[in-house]
User: Which sequence fits this backbone?
């Protein structure tokens, strides 16, 4: 398995096949001995910002801290929860239980639901 | 039986959806300035579009992923970011031209300036997206769009010399102002091969849950749909060639255009023209707004579907909302809609390489397409289209400055 | 020495040099093996052919021959102590 070709930037699906964003980052752990292992997959705008450069990453981090207060870091999924890697990466989580949709939920509650005709 | 209906709907969508502000404006200007000499550009544009549409439909049916998905997944975030920024800017320009086109149609009917119509038009377009489903919009756009066939009927009523028309369908060098000729050729190609069209088509294939069994429908829809759509644009060009060219009339604004159909079709001409302009531009506006949301959602991995309620895909719904709101600005500010249309077509042409280039790699990726990937023929076509796209990208802006 | 984290997505594209300062190639991909619930890194793939591999572009070996393969660097041969300037060392 090639980590960039098969994992990075690929669509994440939860247990029920719901979309959970794309894999924005892959965190490796270099231990005291032995080869490095994949520790987490990361999903989040701050991770994406870091890919554009260290300065952009730091600016995005500060901005996220100021806006979100509590959950400002990217969401991390431990590799142990990865079930399948084919065209998408399926993980053993439920999207409602994750923080992945913080922006989606905030926009829904504070903007979309205030506009008539938006919901069931 | 169901398959036949699907094919019919697909072809109707192609016909009804082909003509919009860009293809109408460029076809009419080409007819007025060069009579039938630029028909080949429409033929070439429709053919390229047919190939690209077939490929993006095949990609969506087999892999359930769209072109925007694949660009992020194969080429990474940095490349996707550049591509999406360019695409959103171009789509914003084209959307502004489409909203302007609908507003002008209403101005022709009511006498009230298009600037006043801009916000009501945008609002109606938005409400239909907010409350509607994908099927509703797709069927509405396609069936109502058939009114644009008035241009084909009109062209035939004027009895164009068919051998001249046929000669125009073959590529040849200009007899007059070369810079202006090539500028119009590039604009026609930019109007025909609109990236948002095949991005919308792929998203539609996913929304409609296409699979392997739809591959033949896909081929027929792409070929005949885009083919007949091109004929509608040719109808507009021929009509302008007969009505405007002999009199040496230059097309400077949309207000001159109703006479094309009143000359050909008499009293019915005016309402048919207004309906064609308004419906064609309105349909295109809906597609572009949706596509801008789709491309953002697909590249960033959001949940997306027009079949969901806005509360279920908040980011997607808000993206197209913001897009529509921003696109009202040029028309509200009183920008000349015909000039805006011409400029948006040129930038659309210039942005082609970044969308079409990746297709060559994606369509050969067995992980996406399994055994349904491109054969040597399709690959050759893509390579030629990419070469054409690069030529267009390089010459388009200089030609706009010199011959526009 | 304690464990430390490396962000793969910031590593790709970085130019790797050897101990003498000669350029080797850019990091394009990472070969890893799954074992139970773990995923262990085996090699780093460098150079333009690694990029083609990452893009799933298959160029027939018959056409180009054996020379045109990705540059494969075993995990313990890549020194990442300076993340911005990785260095390829001989086997550990």
Assistant:
């Amino acid at each position: 398995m090639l980590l960039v070709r098969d994992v990075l930037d690929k669509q994440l699906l939860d247990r029920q096949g719901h979309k959970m964003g794309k894999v924005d980052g892959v965190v490796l752990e270099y231990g005291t001995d032995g080869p490095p292992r994949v520790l987490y997959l990361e999903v989040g705008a701050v991770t994406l910002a870091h890919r554009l450069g260290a300065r952009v990453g730091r600016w995005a981090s500060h901005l996220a801290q100021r806006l979100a207060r509590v959950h400002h870091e990217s969401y991390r999924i431990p590799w142990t929860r990865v079930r399948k890697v084919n065209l998408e990466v399926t993980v053993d989580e439920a999207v409602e239980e994750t923080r992945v949709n913080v922006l989606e939920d905030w926009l829904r509650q504070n903007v979309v639901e205030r506009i008539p005709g938006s919901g069931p | 039986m169901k398959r036949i209906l699907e094919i019919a709907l697909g072809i109707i969508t192609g016909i009804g959806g082909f003509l919009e502000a860009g293809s109408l404006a460029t076809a009419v200007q080409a007819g007025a300035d060069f009579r039938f000499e630029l028909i080949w550009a429409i033929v070439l544009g429709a053919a390229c579009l047919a190939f690209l549409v077939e490929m993006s439909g095949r990609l969506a049916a087999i892999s359930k992923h769209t072109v925007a998905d694949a660009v992020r997944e194969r080429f990474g975030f940095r490349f996707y970011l550049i591509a999406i920024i360019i695409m959103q800017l171009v789509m914003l320009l084209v959307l502004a031209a489409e909203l302007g086109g609908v507003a002008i149609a209403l101005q022709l009917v009511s006498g009230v300036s298009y600037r006043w119509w801009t916000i009501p038009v945008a609002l109606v377009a938005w409400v239909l997206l907010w409350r509607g489903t994908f099927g509703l919009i797709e069927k509405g756009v396609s069936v109502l769009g058939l009114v644009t066939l008035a241009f084909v009927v009109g062209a035939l009523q004027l009895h164009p010399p068919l051998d001249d028309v046929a000669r125009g369908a073959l590529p040849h060098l200009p007899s007059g102002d070369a810079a202006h000729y090539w500028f119009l050729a590039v604009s026609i190609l930019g109007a025909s091969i609109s990236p948002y069209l095949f991005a919308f088509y792929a998203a539609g294939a996913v929304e409609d849950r296409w699979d392997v069994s739809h591959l033949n429908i896909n081929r027929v829809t792409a070929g005949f749909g885009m083919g007949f759509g091109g004929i509608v644009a040719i109808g507009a060009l021929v009509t302008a060639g007969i009505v405007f060219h002999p009199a040496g009339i230059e097309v400077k604004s949309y207000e001159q255009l109703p006479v094309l159909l009143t000359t050909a079709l008499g009293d019915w001409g005016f309402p048919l023209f207004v309906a064609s302009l308004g419906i064609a531009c309105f349909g295109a506006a809906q597609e572009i707004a949706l596509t801008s949301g789709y491309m953002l959602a697909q590249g960033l991995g959001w949940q997306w579907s027009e079949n969901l309620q806005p509360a279920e895909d908040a980011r997607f719904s808000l993206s197209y909302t913001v897009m529509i709101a921003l696109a009202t600005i040029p028309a509200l500010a009183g920008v000349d809609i015909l000039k805006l249309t011409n400029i948006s077509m040129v930038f659309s042409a210039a942005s082609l390489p970044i969308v079409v280039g990746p297709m060559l790699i994606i369509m050969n990726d067995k992980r996406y397409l399994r055994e349904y990937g491109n054969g040597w023929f399709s690959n050759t076509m893509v390579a030629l289209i990419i070469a054409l796209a690069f030529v267009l990208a390089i010459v388009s802006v200089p030609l706009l400055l010199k011959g526009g | 020495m304690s464990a430390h984290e490396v962000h793969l997505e910031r590593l790709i594209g970085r130019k790797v040099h050897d101990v003498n300062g000669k350029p080797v190639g850019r990091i394009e991909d990472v070969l890893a093996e799954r074992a139970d619930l773990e995923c262990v890194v085996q090699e780093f793939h460098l150079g333009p052919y690694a990029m083609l591999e990452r893009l799933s572009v298959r160029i027939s070996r018959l056409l180009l021959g054996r020379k045109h393969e990705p540059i494969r660097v075993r995990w313990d041969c890549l020194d990442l102590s300076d993340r911005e300037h990785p260095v390829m060392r001989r086997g550990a």
About this structure: The CA atoms of residues 37 and 67 of chain C lie 35 Å apart.
